[in-house]
């Protein structure tokens, strides 16, 4: 089972880089319907960063969130142990919060890794995946006897 490191294991420089990366990724957001740009950057256990943006579709339900784009990019290139993910939007006064679907996708790869919710000025709050999705269902639950 993939399981990231405990919360708050990142040094300030790595956090700053990850937050910046999430805001850079936001620049590629394809959001002609919502006009709500989101970026995300996920940091792997090997120190690699994969970034992503929201990618909407004229068939609305097919749109993908930034967090899932970043995670899917990482997993599809062989990385599935994560330390942290940062999420960025253009909302100035509130820290962007990931949607429920993205929380579940994060949880697939462990509950003990960090989610940095950011503002455009670079400030952030950090939660663990466990905090954001308590009492969750994950890969381990499929292994339990019926
Ligand atoms: N969005 C994300 O990319 N991540 C989130 O956590 C919240 C919402 C996107 C989906 C859609 O393209 C737009 O923001 C408006 O909901």
Automatic annotation (TrEMBL):
TM region(s), chain numbering: none
Residue span, CMP/dCMP-type deaminase domain: 13-140
Protein's organism: Phyllostomus discolor (pale spear-nosed bat)
Keyword terms of this UniProt record: Hydrolase, Metal-binding, Zinc
Coiled-coil annotated residue ranges, if any: none
Positions that bind substrate: 54-60
NCBIfam families, A to Z: cyt_deam_tetra, PRK05578.1
Top-rank EC class of the record's enzyme: hydrolase
Annotated PANTHER family: CYTIDINE DEAMINASE
GO terms (BP aspect): nucleobase-containing small molecule metabolic process; pyrimidine-containing compound metabolic process
Lineage summary: Eukaryota, Metazoa, Chordata, Craniata, Vertebrata
Gene Ontology CC annotation, any one: cytosol
Task performed by this protein: This enzyme scavenges exogenous and endogenous cytidine and 2'-deoxycytidine for UMP synthesis.
Assigned protein family: Belongs to the cytidine and deoxycytidylate deaminase family.
EC number in record: 3.5.4.5
Name of one Pfam family that matches: dCMP_cyt_deam_1
Name of the molecule in the record: Cytidine deaminase
């Amino acid at each position: 089972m993939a399981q990231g490191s405990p919360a708050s294991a990142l040094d300030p420089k790595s956090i700053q880089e990850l937050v910046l990366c999430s805001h850079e990724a936001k620049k590629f957001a394809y959001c002609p319907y919502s006009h709500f740009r989101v970026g995300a950057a996920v940091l792997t256990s090997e120190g690699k960063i994969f970034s992503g943006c929201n990618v909407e579709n004229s068939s609305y339900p097919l749109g993908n969130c930034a967090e899932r784009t970043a995670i899917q990019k990482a997993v599809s290139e062989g990385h599935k142990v994560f330390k942290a993910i940062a999420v960025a939007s253009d909302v100035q006064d509130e820290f962007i919060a990931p949607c429920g679907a993205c929380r579940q996708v994060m949880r697939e790869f462990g509950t003990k890794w960090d989610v940095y919710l950011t503002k455009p000025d670079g400030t952030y709050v950090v939660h663990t995946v466990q905090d954001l999705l308590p009492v969750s269902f994950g890969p381990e639950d499929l292994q339990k006897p019926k």
